[in-house]
Amino acid sequence: MTSAASINPDEAAFFGALAGDWWNPRGTSAMLHRITPVRTAHIRAEAVAHFGLNARSRRPLAGLSALDVGCGAGLMAEPLARMGAHVTGIDAAPENIAAAQAHAKAGGLTIAYHSIAVEDLADSGEQFDLITCLEVVEHVAGRDAFFAGLARLLKPGGLAIFSTPNRTAASWAVVIAGAEYITRSIPRGAHDWNRFFTPDELAEALQNAGLTPAQPTGLSWRPGKGFHIGSDVAVNYFLGAAKA
Fold it and tell me: What residues contact residue 243 under an 8 Å CB cut-off, 6+ apart?
């Protein structure tokens, strides 16, 4: 496993141990399966608007290179590929990469997967039009190295999209108490609430790395509507950032 500053070996081992269950919609990644359609629609809309793409196309991201950081077993990388992007996925856990490669092959998708740290991939000089980083920043060890590497990986004019839990009483109640301990839709011990970013903190980290953050967009849930995009950022939110 890499010794890169951004990687927490304990976190990588924790999520790597779940690799075999990642694609089970009723398993340890049940919550991710539930929010993936909402994530996909939001990322599609943001990319279409940022790059001036055809919103009616079935493959609106055709011609774009995309990087999914902390890709796990490919829950976001595969929708990006189906939308036409040339996709690379990276993850700290080699077990996740093996699961992602097997699932993509079974589905006839061509995705380049690597077990490598953000800063190590950035050292290669490779850059991408679109970067997605979903429920990852709260697990990062060396945050400065992580954001600096991510900024180097984004092409000028590119777009990075993050999602992460906010650090609020509401997020503790929903993510830790509710999802980890009551419904078990997230593995117990998956999160440290103290490492959650507020939107202002994440925006500052992105600015320090040379990116220009937009306004956050909330990801929330309510009875009768399920998970949806809105203005409520109390529990979880998206934050886009551009590179000049």
Answer: 151, 154, 155, 156, 157, 158, 159, 160, 210, 211, 212
Q: Which CATH architecture has domain 9-242?
A: 3-Layer(aba) Sandwich (3.40)
User: Can you tell me the distance from the alpha carbon of 79 to that of 101, in angstroms, rounded to the nearest whole number?
Assistant: 14
Question: Do the bridges between strand 86-90 and strand 112-114 make them parallel or antiparallel, or are there none, so unpaired?
Answer: parallel
| Residue extents of the structural domains in the chain | 9-242
- Cα distances (angstroms) measured from residue 81 to each of 15, 49, 133: 23, 18, 15
Per-residue pLDDT of 118-148, as tens digits, reads 999 999 999 999 999 999 999 999 999 999 9
User: Mind spelling out the 3-state secondary structure of the chain?
Assistant: CCCCCCCCHHHHHHHHCCHHHCCCCCCCCHHHHHHHHHHHHHHHHHHHHHHCCCCCCCCCCCCCEEEEECCCCCCCHHHHHHCCCEEEEECCCHHHHHHHHHHHHHCCCCCEEECCCHHHHHHCCCCEEEEEEECCHHHCCCHHHHHHHHHHHEEEEEEEEEEEECCCHHHHHHHHHHHHHHCCCCCCCCCCHHHCCCHHHHHHHHHHCCCEECCCEEEEEECCCEEEEECCCCCEEEEEEECC
pLDDT digits (tens, 9 = 90+) for 47-98: 999 999 999 999 999 999 999 999 999 999 999 999 999 999 999 999 999 9
